[in-house]
Amino acid sequence: MKRYEPPEGWVVQAYRFALDPSDVQVLGLRRNSGAARFVYNYMLGRVSAVKAQRAAEASYGVAEADLTPWQGWSLPELRRTWNEIKQWVAPWWAQCSKEAFNTGLANLSAALGNWHASRAGARKGRRMGFPRVKKKQGRRSVRFTTGAIRVEADYRHVVLPRLGRIRTHESTRKLARRVRAGTATILSATVTETAGRWFCSFQVAVGRTVGRPAHAPKAGLVVGVDAGIRHLAVLCTGEMVPNPAPLKAALNKLGKAQRRAARRVGPYDPATGRKQAPSHRWQRAQHAVARLHATVCAVRADSWHQLTTRLAQQFTTIVVEDLHVAGMMRNRKLARSLTDAAPATLRRHLGYKTGWYGSTLYVADRWYPSSKTCSACQTVKPKLSLAERMFHCTMCGLSLDRDVNAARNLAALVRHVDLELPGDAKTGRGAYVRPARPASAGGAAGREASRPVQPVNVARQQATANHESRLLTER
Ligand SMILES: [Zn+2]
């Protein structure tokens, strides 16, 4: 499908607001998100049935021309078929927005496309399986791309097609003011239910004035940031940003809530393993678990947003490490704390926020020994265990916190590059610093797009960065 390209100098980003819909509106939201699920499942069944039927016919020796007609899975093909059959398979279709059916068909088209591309080897990343049926208990979501989509001037309501005016739980001022000033255009709106709370996320093209906002004080030129578990991040200035570890904080409550749910009548009979109708009390208990998880998620996201916004606004150049989190997750002792801190968020957030505020992000090579190098005399230690919290240099006698030492090394990388040769990314110490690739509009790296970060020397850096296939080494 053709991807939307925002005008020059504009970025695509999301504005998300919690909603306070009335009971009637909740029914409308559920009806439309349910329709999206229904059409997804129905057409998925049809695609796989046609596929199986054709395979069977071919095995009987039926001629190619006489086979059951193929069901294509491009969005126009799916839509055409759906419009022909909807009056029989979904006689209630007129009660829902056409956007609801479009949501389901577009998602199905993308899912089948991903599966096909993955099988053909045309898609990066993990192998994608054949799409599965969406369950009723799954996340409810529907996306509106046309029709009356807007935020009201009172800052407290959003308007969506077929659903009408819905009260928001929080102020929509930030978006409404931009729309009024003509520096924002709403492209689409997605309503989603998370742990019983409905959210409306607007996809917006925004004309940002790139640069440091007037209210943000200037803190310095270059900052090296070391993301970790003990602290969310350690800056080369010596500042240690505390890690709220929200999952760890909620573990007791979660255990309690899950034990309570386990004592109630759930969807399976533990004695026979048979399916059964879960009790209302079980559903309430499940809801409590979901709310705890939603809080954990919100606390984590907030800490990262506060830190990364501050960094992107107050520093001109930010240097981070390319973390191999997936590799570190294989360490079972670290896995839970790692997910709780989510250190890769640092780079993901800075990737687009540096574009918003006119700063530059540098990502140090994954194999650069930032922790093992002495920030004073550049001696590299052969070994540094994770238990050693202090860095002691045997050569020059430097002694400081290991994370501050690492952050200082990261900051020094860019000073080195900028001073020495503004065209060469290779520093004298065998580390490669490359500017971060910006996320594309609506791309997989995030819904947000950013202005391209000005590269130092793209061609040369890509050549040097192509050797990333070594195994993860202990730093
Ligand atoms: Zn030293």
Automatic annotation (TrEMBL):
The keyword Hydrolase does not apply. Residues 345-410 form the Cas12f1-like TNB domain. Residues 261-280, 428-454 are annotated as: Disordered. Keywords: DNA recombination, DNA-binding, Metal-binding, Transposition, Zinc. InterPro entries: Cas12f1-like_TNB (IPR010095), RNA-guided_DNA_endonuclease (IPR053470), Transposase (IPR001959), Transposase_put_HTH (IPR021027). It comes from the Bacteria. Residues 13-45 form the Transposase putative helix-turn-helix domain. Residues 210-331 form the Probable transposase IS891/IS1136/IS1341 domain. GO terms for biological process: DNA recombination; transposition. It holds the Pfam family Cas12f1-like_TNB. One of its GO terms (molecular function) is metal ion binding. The keyword Transcription regulation does not apply. In the C-terminal section; belongs to the transposase 35 family. This is Transposase. It comes from Rugosimonospora africana.
